[in-house]
Each structure stands twice: as structure tokens, then as C-alpha cells.
Design goal:
Helix 1 crosses helix 7 (263-270) and helix 4 runs parallel beside helix 5. This protein has a six-stranded parallel sheet, with helices on both faces. Strands 3-2-6-7 form a four-stranded mixed sheet. By secondary structure, the protein is of the alpha/beta class. 33% of the residues lie in helices and 25% in strands. The protein has one domain (2-8, 37-87, 108-315): Ribokinase (UDP-N-acetylmuramoyl-L-alanine:D-glutamate ligase). The protein has helices at 38-48, 61-73, 113-126, 147-157, 168-175, 211-223, 263-270, 272-275, 280-293, 302-309; strands at 2-6, 10-17, 30-36, 53-59, 77-82, 88-95, 100-105, 132-136, 162-166, 181-184, 228-232, 239-244, 248-252, 313-315.
Length: 317
């Protein structure tokens, strides 16, 4: 059983209209509601692949109930810690006539010390029987940037490997606790507005730049005690580098750059290296094929996945 932790869960409310004009009433033609947050998307992908998964984190108010209900429709079990504040919403307004989308992000709820204490107790109970824990995404207001480091330590004490997918201070504090796998997040995606930490601080330098530089920084993290580092480009899901103490592997899928895909699906594809002891070449093939054949919501085209799996090139072979 894999536990995914999403501390800053949201509800994505998607409106579509033929044309959107500010300052005047608009007729909405389609409305969709979807649970949002990196860890929740990872959980949805894992469940679609037949994995036993539990989604944990914070949820509050009627929005929190809608988040849990949406995940239940995807057969994802949830064990959220209830908070007094309302979970945030992300409003996406799509003007289909002009192909424009405007996104409005609500501020994250404030997490009290008492709520954090209850979550820590809930989290430690979930570690019993877990094969891996995934700590993913931004932090809500009120949480210290070292929270992922603390959660990774609890996991290590329980003998459960931790996977951290984050950026900025949350990433660096997590790395100091030697997780099994570190996945530096996109530059600028470290914390939500209002959260503690330095807004805009990046993960290891080079994760958005040349792959060689990213590998150098990843090697330094591994030398510092991180089990493995997966370097994913900010904008291209067809190339991933895995760095371990033993060696490095680079996976590429030629001819498919520019496909939007889903970074969260790619992250879900990296988990077997830790949870099921897959080889890194097999893991990279799996992760890249998942990333490019999933849509932004994490829905996978399994037929396309099967076709592309053998086209991922691993070097060295």
C-alpha cells in the first residue's frame, strides 16, 4: 500500500464558455469539478494502474468534502485530517472561442499547530503496512518549510521509504533527511502564496536548464545521503535522468517533445523503483511512457502507453 500526502489539496473548478468578457454576465456552457494537488493526482494514477493507495493530507469545509467525493469516484481511498479552514479552490475559466484560459487561485487555508499535531499522529498510523510514502506538492500557510523533512524522518523510523516531490526550502529540508528518492519540482513551485519559505526559490540548480548541470547537482545530493534523484525538465516530459550512488541512467523518447502530458503521472511512474525494487531502466521507461500518455488530469491512455513503452531509449543501455 502506497500513501500519498497532499498538504495543500484543492478543488479545481473548471468553467467553459464560448466567449468570456470581463465586467458583464457570461453564460457558462460546461462545469467540471476535480480534486487538485500533486499528491492527489499521483494517487489517482496509481489507482488506475491497480495499486493500493491511500491519499492523506488536510481537507476542510464543504470544499474538502467535494475533494474526497471526487477521489472516491476514482476509487482512491482518502484519510484526510480535518481542518477548520476551507480547502482552497482553483477556478479555471476557459474562453473556448479565443482559446484563452484564466486561472484564479484562492489562498491556502491556515493550518494550526493543533491540526498539524493531529495530522502527524494520523500520518504515523498510516505508515504501518505502507510500502512507500510520497510527499508531493506545495505547502499551505502555517506549515514550516521543514515539514517534509520531519515526515521523511517519521517514515524512516517506521522502515518506510520516502519519496519527496517538491521545490525550494521544502525540497532542501527534505533532502537533509536522506529520502529514498528526491524529485526536484519545477522552478518557482516551492510554496503556495502565504506559506512559509522563500517564494520562488528553486530546487537544485539546473533542473530547469541543461540536463548535464541537473545531473551534477543530483550527484551532489546523492553524495549527501539521498538514495536517488530523478531530474525532470520543467517543460519536457520525454527526458528524465536518474542518479544513484552506483551510476546514472538517462531515458529519452524521441519525436514526442511538446506533448503536454502529466508530470504527476510521470512521478507516479517513478515510484516502483522504490516501492517494488524495479531496475532504473525499467522504471524510466514506465515513467516517461506514463507521463506523455496521460492528460493534465492524470487520465492515462493505456493503449498509447503500451505502444510507447518500447520506444523509450535508455543510456547507457
Amino acid at each position: 500500500m502506497i500513501v500519498t500526502v497532499t498538504l495543500n489539496a484543492s478543488l479545481r473548478v473548471q468553467y467553459e464558455a464560448d466567449r468570456v468578457e470581463w465586467g458583464t454576465p457570461n453564460q457558462v456552457t460546461r462545469v467540471r469539478y476535480r480534486a487538485g494537488g500533486h499528491g492527489l493526482a499521483v494517487a489517482r494514477v496509481l489507482r488506475a494502474l491497480g495499486q493500493d493507495v491511500i491519499a492523506a493530507g488536510f481537507a476542510g469545509g464543504s470544499t474538502g468534502g467535494l475533494i474526497a467525493a471526487d477521489l472516491a469516484r476514482s476509487e482512491v481511498e482518502t484519510r484526510f485530517t480535518t481542518i477548520s479552514g476551507e480547502s482552497r479552490r482553483t477556478l479555471e475559466v476557459a474562453d473556448t472561442g479565443r482559446d484563452h484560459t484564466t486561472i484564479l487561485n484562492e489562498p491556502p487555508p491556515y493550518i494550526t499547530t493543533e491540526e498539524l499535531g493531529r495530522f502527524a499522529a494520523d500520518y504515523r498510523r498510516l505508515l504501518t503496512g505502507a510500502t512507500a510514502v510520497v510527499l508531493s506538492g506545495t505547502l499551505p500557510a502555517g506549515l514550516p518549510p521543514e515539514i517534509y523533512g520531519s515526515l521523511a524522518t517519521y517514515a524512516a523510523e517506521a522502515g518506510v521509504p520516502a519519496i519527496i516531490d517538491a521545490a525550494g526550502p521544502a525540497l532542501w529540508y527534505g533532502a537533509s533527511r536522506h529520502p529514498a528518492l528526491l524529485i526536484p519540482g519545477p522552478v518557482g513551485a516551492d510554496t503556495a502564496a502565504g506559506a512559509n519559505g522563500s517564494a520562488g526559490a528553486a530546487g537544485p540548480a539546473g533542473t530547469a536548464g541543461p540536463a548535464g548541470k541537473g545531473r551534477e547537482d543530483a550527484a551532489a545530493l546523492v553524495a549527501g545521503g539521498v538514495g536517488a534523484v530523478a531530474v525532470v525538465s520543467d517543460h519536457d516530459l520525454t527526458a528524465v535522468t536518474a542518479v544513484t550512488a552506483a551510476r546514472q541512467w538517462h531515458g529519452t523518447l524521441d519525436g514526442h517533445s511538446g506533448i503536454p502530458g502529466s508530470r504527476d503521472a510521470l512521478v507516479a511512474g517513478l515510484i516502483p523503483a522504490v516501492a517494488e525494487d524495479w531496475s532504473w531502466p525499467d522504471t524510466l521507461r514506465h515513467a516517461i511512457a506514463l507521463g506523455v500518455t496521460a492528460d493534465a488530469a492524470g487520465e492515462i491512455d493505456l493503449d498509447a502507453y503500451d505502444l510507447l513503452l518500447s520506444e523509450v531509449i535508455i543510456s547507457p543501455p
